[in-house]
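#structure-requests
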Amino acid sequence: MGDNLGEQILQQIDKDGTTDTEKLAELLNVNHQQIVGAMKSIQSLGNLIESEQKTSKKWELTGEGESVLANGSHEAVVYKAVPPDTGILQAELMKSIPNAKVGFSKAMSAGWLVVDKKSEGGPRILRKTDNIVDKVQQQLKALSIGEDKLSDKEKADYKKRKLLSEVVTKSYIIKKGSEFSTSISKPQTDLTPEMIASGSWKNYKFKSLNFDALGAPPTAGHLHPLLKVRTEFRQIFLEMGFTEMPTNNFVESSFWNFDALFQPQQHPARDQHDTFFIADPMNADGFPMDYLERVKKVHSEGGYGSQGYRYDWKIEEAKKNLLRTHTTAVSARMLYKLAQQKPFRPAKYFSIDRVFRNETLDATHLAEFHQIEGVIADRGLTLGDLIGVLHAFFKKLGIEKLRFKPAYNPYTEPSMEVFSYHEGLKKWVEIGNSGVFRPEMLLPMGLPEDVSVIAWGLSLERPTMIKYGLNNIRDLVGHKVDLQMVYDNAICRLDK
């Protein structure tokens, strides 16, 4: 039917020269939208026709207007419901017909009715005139047959009464194009080997190609926002001269996760309600025994200017396997390895990987998250150096609103929590922890006494939430993540 309708349109244009789609719809007894669709199909085949859009406005009767046209206006219906001689109680009139309130008001304004407030039984409505002219019905009838004699004020009134609605119609004026023809032949879209071999391609018209059109996007995976931000963090560390630490062991021994960091075996973090312990294999082995003995001694007896914790340190506790609670366990391994290299050479390490804690889930906490850690080992480092490095580091992330708060960590002294202002949550959010590693941790490893190690750690999730404006960490990680969010989110560009 589409080609047939298109040819009918072309034949009509050939006959009239210029026409419009509304006229064609009426002439061919077809819905106007079908005419417009056929016109656009013809235009897609080339310059057969030219079109110009025009906009027209007209007033049409609403469903209520059609009812008034058939039965009379609301005021006329109310007038007719009032008996000529006796009248009717107002309460009874209001119940007996629809739209009585509007009709009564209009009839009173027109001077058709009068109210006898002293009547027995309550106010009684009486006719004030014997004959009326239903002007509203007459005007709507004239409008329905194309005679628009209404003033703007009357139209506005009838529109307010929901008797009329203004309809905007978009139509097209059509005329012949430079390639006009009364027949439709679709151009070829493909040039085949057979056409070339036979030479028949010379007899075909080919559809022009749009070389500016975008191709269909290929089906592909998309980087999660966490991975985008992780890449930026990694690049920042590399720009600052850091070396990445190997972090491929999620399972760690309690010795490297806690004991090597001078964290006592009675510390609450080592309880099952804070840490995920491994059932199989339950224990680790292969520790450097001379270093283990020095760690045992500093815990139980003290040393290096410290009195230690003064408790019975047990190797059975140190052997327990667990899911690492922080990447500082990796830092401990790397610092021990650094201490074995003679002579000592300053080093800067970083890591970005997953850690696990038995946390209560809320808008800013998960049981599994990513930790970013930076470590600098050199002679004579102080807390001032740490604060300066943190400002330089976070400025590269585009985070300049920083606050530092004194804190306690078993393996750093002094220690500081790092806070950043979250524009989404409208509050200061902790984004990291920092400090200077204690001598009780460093000296048993074999590092020189004048070497200090400053370090800081933060989660990857919270800076990502700040960057992408997310208020709930569960919208970023976990089974409730909207995969469309992963598809739509822009590439990460930190304000370095």
